[in-house]
Amino acid sequence: MILRVVLALVLSAPPVMTPSAPPARPCPVAVPAGTTCGFLLVPERRDAPGRTIRVGYAVHRSTVRERRPDPVVYMSGGPGSASLQLTGFLAQMFPDRDVVALEQRGGRYSEPALDCPETAEALLGQLRRPPADVAAAAVTCRDRLREQGVDLRGYTTKEMAADVVALRRELGYPSWNLFGVSYSTRVMAEAAAADPEGTRSLVLDSFLPEGVNWYDDAERNLTDTMAKLGVKDAFEAMTARLNASPARVPATDPLLGQEFTARLSGDDVAAVLFEGLAGADVAAVAPALLPALAEGRDELLRPLADAAGEGLVSHEFGLYHAVQCQDELPFNASAGRSRLFTHNADKAVCDAWALPRSQPTTAAPRAPAFVLGGQYDPTTPVRTSRPAAEALPDGRFAEIPGASHAVFLSSACARRMIVEFVADPAVRTAASCQDTDGGRREDLRVTAAPYAIARAPWLAAPFAIFALTALAQLVAAALKGRALAAYGGLCGVAFAGLTAQAVYGLAARNATALAVGLPADVVPYTWIAVASVVLTAAGALLRWRRWPGWAATAVGAGFLVWWMLWVT
């Protein structure tokens, strides 16, 4: 028995793995069975060897009989986003290959982790009055990291690319397939150029080419995306209105766990939307949201203000600024003069840190490369990613309709195209995602009620009371043969069921939409609720004259007032 187990393990192991693979460690996130986690020991600065750091990674071993020998290695974007939590997702995407998820040096699951709560809090503090001092917060964070022995000059794209190459050699794979998204497309492109013999193929989702000046292009990219969504005029009207009279909006500080009042100008909202539109779910609701904001529906700003805070806990800001201040911002002419407060804050941090500017990479990857871009992506738009893909020695490009940033996360068609490319990188097909699941525009009845209910579920009590009353009325009236009252209860139950079904379907498809409104289908359903109240009142007046009939009528009438005046 033991011999069979050992033999099975030997036969199922990839022949390219060396016996001296780094020791395993407990995985810091949930991962599928067959996954081990470890640290790659690397110099903090390869140009000045001395201190070493540890870069986290996870390896998921495929268990299929015909496993491919060359794995997929993935790194998330940011800079400063974590990678390990996507191990299971990628393992399902590539069941016939090992999957390696590699953290960025300085990331959440590497050591040291360059978190900067000081600057994150100061960035959110830009929405307060008076605004927080971002530069002072950056100095505090820098000094704390220095005391820990951190040399910020070691946290660059070039060093991360060298980590990718080092991990391949450490794990013993002769070659593998590189998969980058957003910022990490730069890392993977550089790794492929530095390690041509070890790179079988290159997938670049939401490609950020080396020569593109991200800060200089940001405002144009945002305006172009609004035009593609058909809301450019509404966006400009919203911006002008709120710049003239900023809104005061209650918001939650996720770092302190406290509520505060945010002051949102039109430019502030534009900055939040620039970040938010990276998600296809936000792009799908923008055509409903922007006109409402242009008309003065400021109650819809609460989810945007909360989203600004939540975005600050998704990155390690020490790492983010170390990369931006060396590899990106110094090459941009407009840095510090943007309408987007987030970009001006980045300039303040970089001025305070005074890190040296990096040297641009000149080598191009020679491996077959597949570049994907989202139609509505304001961060790495098709306008720049398509020509960059065409300029690669063996590059090809696909635009995903309806999608935004990081298209593989939202589009099954994009994932299928990626898998097909990795299976045979030499095949140049004219694959397309037209008429597929690339995304959709949500048809919404704009209202702030669903978001308020999500934060305080007791606010939905009138709906629950109405539904339960209608159900009880249906049962009691049916047993007593009271037709009008029974039909009234049936209409109430039908309304509640149809509305719940529509809301559930929207939440399953795009939960973000519930921060903006309800499915438009619920508006005609209101007439079913009206019919319920009318029939109940008629039944109480004609034949059901005792208090239950009038109580049910009162509940229904009160519900309609709540529904029509507050919800819809």
From TrEMBL:
<feature type="transmembrane region" description="Helical">
    <location>
        <begin position="549"/>
        <end position="566"/>
    </location>
</feature>
<dbReference type="InterPro" id="IPR013595">
    <property type="entry name" value="Pept_S33_TAP-like_C"/>
</dbReference>
<dbReference type="InterPro" id="IPR000073">
    <property type="entry name" value="AB_hydrolase_1"/>
</dbReference>
<dbReference type="Pfam" id="PF08386">
    <property type="entry name" value="Abhydrolase_4"/>
</dbReference>
<keyword id="KW-0472">Membrane</keyword>
<keyword id="KW-0732">Signal</keyword>
<feature type="signal peptide">
    <location>
        <begin position="1"/>
        <end position="18"/>
    </location>
</feature>
<feature type="domain" description="Peptidase S33 tripeptidyl aminopeptidase-like C-terminal">
    <location>
        <begin position="347"/>
        <end position="427"/>
    </location>
</feature>
<protein>
    <submittedName>
        <fullName>Alpha/beta hydrolase</fullName>
    </submittedName>
</protein>
<feature type="transmembrane region" description="Helical">
    <location>
        <begin position="524"/>
        <end position="542"/>
    </location>
</feature>
<keyword id="KW-0378">Hydrolase</keyword>
<keyword id="KW-1133">Transmembrane helix</keyword>
<dbReference type="GO" id="GO:0016787">
    <property type="term" value="F:hydrolase activity"/>
</dbReference>
<dbReference type="InterPro" id="IPR050471">
    <property type="entry name" value="AB_hydrolase"/>
</dbReference>
<keyword id="KW-0812">Transmembrane</keyword>
<feature type="transmembrane region" description="Helical">
    <location>
        <begin position="484"/>
        <end position="504"/>
    </location>
</feature>
<dbReference type="InterPro" id="IPR029058">
    <property type="entry name" value="AB_hydrolase_fold"/>
</dbReference>
<dbReference type="Pfam" id="PF00561">
    <property type="entry name" value="Abhydrolase_1"/>
</dbReference>
<feature type="domain" description="AB hydrolase-1">
    <location>
        <begin position="71"/>
        <end position="207"/>
    </location>
</feature>
<feature type="transmembrane region" description="Helical">
    <location>
        <begin position="458"/>
        <end position="477"/>
    </location>
</feature>
